[in-house]
TrEMBL record:
CDD domains: nicotinamidase_related. This is Cysteine hydrolase. It holds the Pfam family Isochorismatase. GO terms for molecular function: hydrolase activity. Keywords: Hydrolase. Residues 7-177 form the Isochorismatase-like domain. Transmembrane segments: none annotated.
């Protein structure tokens, strides 16, 4: 028995993420991979959900009304697609996302976006804890370089890899764009 096709969840693909102030990142191909998934999901008439971070911190790149808070042009939602706004990393917190998914019988999520160790990880952890069949697309996410708890600088690739390791097998299954595309071919 095959599983239902997952809804595509695109997290925080906003203009501020593309600005130099956002930091040094990995996965320069992430946008192309998300675009490919988005086009495929749309062509198949599958559910697409967009999440946008709206900061509560004045001066933030994602403060409401700022250009950085707007979606990147390649990821503008269609009128038929749902948008959830959040002001914490987890897309399930203080939103109606869980209820919206349950009301539509959606039990599988394919998560993409930014940043892997923040909003993607927080959302995937909640999705897994809430019982959703959660899939995270490793090459359709990216992270930013940062220092670890001990102050040791970590590259964006290291931060990304650790976040994926935190998720894989515990809260979600991590796969590639190629593997995700095969999900729509399954009967």
């Amino acid at each position: 028995m095959t599983q239902p096709r997952p809804a595509l969840l695109i997290i925080d693909m906003q203009q501020g993420m593309a600005l130099p102030q956002a930091g040094i990142r990995n996965n320069p191909q992430a946008e192309a991979n998300i675009t490919q998934l988005l086009a495929t999901w749309r062509a198949a008439g599958q559910t697409v959900i967009h999440v946008r971070h709206m900061s509560r911190t004045p001066g933030s790149l994602f403060w409401p009304g700022q250009r950085g808070a707007e979606f990147q042009p390649a990821f503008l939602p269609l009128d038929s697609e749902t948008v959830f706004e959040k002001n914490v990393p987890d897309a399930f917190t203080h939103s109606a996302l869980e209820r919206w998914l349950h009301m539509r019988g959606i039990r599988r999520l394919l998560i993409t976006g930014v940043s892997t160790n923040n909003s993607v990880e927080a959302t995937a952890r909640s999705a897994g804890n809430l019982g959703f069949d959660t899939l995270v697309v490793s090459d359709a996410c990216f992270a930013f370089a940062r220092a670890d708890y001990h102050g040791t600088p970590r590259s964006a690739d290291e931060v990304h890899a650790m976040a994926l390791a935190n998720l894989d097998g515990e809260y979600a299954r991590v796969l590639t764009t190629g593997q995700a595309l095969t999900l729509l071919a399954e009967d």
